[in-house]
Structures are given as structure tokens and as C-alpha cells.
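Quick entry between incubations.
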Amino acid sequence: MALLEVKNLEVYYGVICALKGISFEVNEGEIVSLIGANGAGKTTMMQSVVGLIPKRSGSVIYDGKDITKMSCHKIVQLGMTQVPEGRRIFQELTVMENLMMGAYTVRDQQRYKEDLQSVFERFPRLAERRNQIAGTLSGGEQQMLAMSRALMIRPKLLMLDEPSMGLAPILVDQIFEIIKELHASGTTILLVEQNASKALEIADRAYVLETGSITLSGTGKELASSDEVRKAYLGGSNHTPPA
Amino acid sequence: MEEILSTLINGLSLGGIYAMIALGYTMVYGIAKMLNFAHGDIIMVGGYLIYVFMATKNPLIAILLAVVGCVILGVTIEKIAYKPLRGASPLAVLITAIGVSYMLQSLAQIIFGSATQMVTVYEFGAVKLMGATVQISSLVTLGVTVAVMLALTLFVKFTRLGRAMIAVSEDRDAAQLMGINVNGIITITFAIGSALAALAGLFYLLKAPAVSGTMGAMPGIKAFTAAVIGGIGSIPGAMLGGILLGMVECISYKITAIAPYTDAIEFSILILILLVRPTGFLGKKRREKV
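Done. Structure below.
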């Protein structure tokens, strides 16, 4: 069953059409990747699905509920959240306070403590720096904080917008390991990435977004070996697709 | 010596009032990203509400009802006038706020007439303090404003709601992704700002027992100046700016003894500080998002 179903989603910025009626779905337990060049509309898609920017037309169904017109904070309370592009942690708050904000809708103190514990086990760096102002963390640490903050609501569907952006290759590997772990522990994941080879490697299914339209779709492997994708996103035809 | 002490106390208590009003400006600016130019007129509404409810002969009940009335008014203004403009150009919001300001002033004049009304909330009298004569009302004002500022600081730092306010002021979209209801936070901000303005109205009545339709205009502009000097958007900044401006006003009045000079001095200081530190004392350099 589709956990998230987006149908004919259209988004305009003024008179400019940013999304020209895109449709895709994310099934429960999948990792779905959406790849595309800069300006293809990836972030627009993410923000409109979660209710941060208005939709012109189309529908979004999450977990059987129509969330097309729902406001963002209500959508999040249904168990779907997003790690936004550029991380967007609260720079003036401490690491702890950021995590507290992540758990804003969690009233159960016991659950909050458990989740905090598991975040600190997964990311010992964050535990060390729990009282540090978040703006002083390194880029990698900020990305980890942003992901941990989103995990505090125990999302059923986690949307990640460019989690590898601006990070050193070793950190990129680490982030993708974490995504795999989260997926293994039962979180459904929608991943938007410019790093197409990585994104296709871990994806069950994937879509290619080009100037506001979905032009290709298939399993991660299919897309990774398709000529078009290899030429446009994987750095030419010499690239060996992941086995 | 006596004069220095009484000027100091007067300056601090006036500064406390400015700080209370400036907090309303700065919190609304930080969280709703707008300049609420009708904020000063809430002081006036607070004054008139106290004037009306003094019919109960009980100052505490009158004050309480005035605070409640101003909170309802502030929240209603936000819902009717500002909320529909969320996402509109800042200029449209600014002009709307100025419109609301004139509307409140004109309504007050229609209802209560343009003449100044006298209202005595409570006679505190004066005490001798180390040889200086000090109005007890100044000490009460100082005490209450310090207590309120302390409470507000603790609220913002240590409560879930307070931290959510910081989160919204820093990044509205990210806050929504935490499940924070931004509209709810904005409503609470307007409620707090209006309650503080109502108290400021009370303190003005303790200083000079008169209400008029324009009584909020000058304190509003002064407090806005204070908020800008402290760094608009910053809560400690508003407190610092308010106290500073109050002190400057009392000291310069002591020296020149002519009220218009003190205004000129205060606004000159604003210009000087903005020349040296455009973001105010505690303001952050923030990239304005387009």
C-alpha cells in the first residue's frame, strides 16, 4: 500500500510553473529517491508535499488521509517529517534544545528520554556537545543534529532533502549508512539528492525530475543502468553502475 | 547627591516602562516579522480601560480587566488585520499597522471625546530616601517592570512554549517541521505584547493621572526607538534599550529642564547608535530573506 501518494501536483511561483503536475508514490518500507539537476524542482516538491508552500492543484494522500490542504504542523503530527535542505537547525539554541524542539509534539516524557538516549548512542558527538550552541557545530554534526531532530517524532515517513550537500565524502558515506540503518529499523524514506549514484544505489525505486516534470522512473538499479541517467547524472557512460 | 538618586530612580522606572513596551515591538518583530505600529496605541486603550473600570472603585480589578481587554484587542487585531496579510509585502503590513493605529486613536476620540480625562488609580505618595524625595509609584513601577522582565526571560529560556518562540523567530519553516503551530505562537506573542502594553498604560497613569486618545503615540515611538537601539528582535536588547532611553530622558531633562530638548537628545542618540551599530547593541546581523 502506498504510504504517500502524490497525484498531478502543480506548484507555481507567481506565473512561473515550478512543478508541472507530477505524480509519484512511496510505499511503506521503501527507500524512494528523487534525483534531478539544480532547479529541477526537487526542493519545491518536498516543501509543497509537506505543506510549506501552497499547491496550485493536485492531491497528496498520506497514510490514507488527504493532506493536500493541511497545514505543515498538522501533517508533521501525523508522523511524516522532513530534514530540510541546508539542515536548518536552530543556530541560537543548544544541541539539547534543538532535540527538544524536535520532540515538541511528544508529550510522553518517558518516550522523549528513550529517544534522546538512542540519538546519543547513534551520535556520540552530539552527546558530547549537548550543551553547545548548535550554530557552532561543524557541517557534518549539523546534518546529524538535523536528522536526529527529525527522528524525535518517530516518523513513519522521513523525507530528506539533499542530506549530503556540502559534506566531505567520508561524511557523505556516513550519512548514507545512517539512512540505510533508519530504513532497516522500519522508517520509510523519501530521499532527494543531487548525488545521483549514491541515491540510486540505496533506492528501492527512483524518479528523475527534470524542469518540473518526472521524466523517468524505475527501480534504483534500472535507473542506474539506463543510458539517459548515466549520461546526465552519473558522469558519462564510462561509469559502472552499482552491482 | 539627592538629586542624582531621584533622577536615577525616575530614569530607571521610566526606562522600565519603555522596556515593557519595547518588548512588545521586538517580540512581534522577531516572531511575526512585522513592525506593529499600532502597539503604542494599546497603551492608550489600556489607559482608557482602567479609566472605565475604575467605576468598580477597585484598582486591582480595573487593572486586571484592562490587561484582559488589551490582550483580547491585540489578538483580535492580529487575526483580522495582520493574519490575512501573512506573505504579503512588508510595506502592505506596515501601512495596515499604521492604519490600525489611527483607527484606534480615532475610535477613542469618538467614544471618549478629544479632551483629556483625569483618572486616579491609586495615591502612593512619596518617601524620603537618603535625603531624596522619591515617588513610591516610581519604585512600584521599577519593581513590577523588573519582575515582569525577569519572568519573561525565564519563560522564554526555560519553557517549551518559550523555546518554540525562539525557534519560530529563527526559522519559521523549520519550526513548522517540528510540529509547531506558527499561527498559535504568533497569537501568544501578540497576547503577551498587549498585556505588557496595558501594564505600561497603568504605569503612565501612576506618573500622570490623565488619559487621552493620543497618549500612546509618543511612548510608542520612544519604545520603538528603544527596541531599535537594543537591537530589534532581541529580548534582552529591548530591556537594555528601554532602560538606556529612560535614563537618557531623565538625565537630559534634569540638565535642560525643557521637554522638547530631551526628545531631540533621545532621537539623536538613536541616530548616532545606528550610525555606529546598525543592528543595535544586541541585534544580530541577519541575512534578510528575499
